[in-house]
Amino acid sequence: MEGCDVIVGYKTYVDLVKNLIRGKEVFSTGMTQEVDRCQKAIELAAQGKKVAVVSSGDAGIYGMAGLIYELMFNRHTNEEGEKRGKGETEKKISGSPVHRFSDSFIIEVIPGVPAFCAAASLLGAPLMHDFASISLSDLLTPWETIKRRLKLAAEGDFVIILYNPKSKARTFQLEEAIDMISSSRGAHTPVGIVKNGTREGEDIKIATLKELPVHYDFIDMSTILIIGNSTTFVSNNKMITPRGYNVRI
Fold this sequence. Notes:
Blueprint: E1 6-10, H1 11-16, E2 25-29, H2 34-46, E3 51-54, H3 65-85, E4 92-93, E5 96-97, H4 115-123, E6 124-125, E7 131-135, H5 143-155, E8 159-163, H6 172-182, E9 190-195, E10 203-208, E11 223-227, E12 233-235, E13 238-240
Parallel strand pairs: 1-2, 1-3, 6-13, 7-8
Antiparallel strand pairs: 4-5, 8-11, 9-10, 9-11, 12-13
Helix pairs in contact: 2-3, 5-6
């Protein structure tokens, strides 16, 4: 970010790094305006500016990296279509089209710490075996698709991470998801609840599937839930999912 000319991002995330971007040009928007932000970042880059698109956690996990690549791919495809329309030939290597962006565009994805990794570190070691991460937001994914994923993850005995569990306008999904998971898990399955993990206002709770409804009011969009599998247990207020080593407890 220090080496960039412009910072682009969701206002909440930009505010989190304000001490690192003093004096920078900033373009920020609210929720659901992701395409506008990324299009703006590409436009600024096309002007020769070095642009940082800020995401929370890891940009490649529920972040903006994929959208930037999609928009750049569409831009490149449209440009190639215009060239072919003018009779220009497409360069090929080994018989395949060269799928690369303009030399003026270099995209670098900087790895970060995903929210589920941060939450897991605060809870103990709940992700030591296979797990599935599922967002309960149906803004971009049909609820029926989300339910199918929940059902299969629960039946497969995966540790289940729930992103975007509940918002002010979207409340029924969490209760329905927990009901579905509970049909394949014992009532005393541990559930880690991490709100504002590693940020100001951090709060951590460990409950069971049976107890979870008591905490529904506590849960919001800044909360990550990690639901244990059939082997997950709690010791000294820490969630542990055994990897399978031959350890006598």
